């Protein structure tokens, strides 16, 4: 595949994504024929904030914490089925992208459950179109819950954290 065709395919896919958003569609599937035995199959879909919240969270192996590390508060503070976006103190995503809890792989998270944050402190990064966007704390408080997993996709308005 030559670079010109690759650039045209990328532009085509971007146009499909815009069409998806502009027409409030949830999925779009297209097959582009270039010739015999040469085609491009594209499926573009999006998840609403409601679907994202209802999706099962990725399972991570629990690691033993060092003795000096503070333990997270008990999860009995809110009902398990409560919508995090409706919680008082919910910090929601200002954009669509990929959430990262640490500045780079292998480094410590910006914040952890139980941390005190000040207004303007970086809570996490959302990567959108190869740009790393620092998401600041909208107010001072204590991080009560981290709703997103590191490296997970987020939609506009999706809950990220709860700060009280």
From TrEMBL:
Keyword line: Biotin, Fatty acid biosynthesis, Fatty acid metabolism, Ligase, Lipid biosynthesis, Lipid metabolism
Family annotation (SUPFAM superfamilies): Single hybrid motif
Pathway(s) where this gene product acts: Lipid metabolism; fatty acid biosynthesis
Chain positions covered by the region annotation Disordered: 64-92
Pfam family, one: Biotin_lipoyl
Residues of the Lipoyl-binding domain: 88-164
PROSITE patterns: BIOTIN, BIOTINYL_LIPOYL
GO MF annotations, alphabetized: acetyl-CoA carboxylase activity
Biased composition (Low complexity): 64-90
Function field: This protein is a component of the acetyl coenzyme A carboxylase complex; first, biotin carboxylase catalyzes the carboxylation of the carrier protein and then the transcarboxylase transfers the carboxyl group to form malonyl-CoA.
The name this protein goes by in its record: Biotin carboxyl carrier protein of acetyl-CoA carboxylase
Protein source organism: Roseinatronobacter alkalisoli
Origin organism lineage: Bacteria, Pseudomonadati, Pseudomonadota, Alphaproteobacteria, Rhodobacterales
